[in-house]
User: Fold this.
Amino acid sequence: MRETMSIWFFCGVLFFIYGIIITGQGIWELSHPPAQPPVLYSLHAPIWWGAMMGIAGLFYTIRHWPHRNR
Assistant:
């Protein structure tokens, strides 16, 4: 019989990929600052947000990995 895969596994993979992309964009933004930075630019939100999304995505991916004995 075929085992079903949890939707949370795919959500975790997607969150992890988005986290990597957003963190990479934030790091690139550090080396290429905008001419007129936004008010809260010094907080570097893309780096923090991307890192949090990546960690959450990794957690969900590992937690709901398919074919794992539970």
Remarks:
- DSSP finds two helices and no strands in the chain.
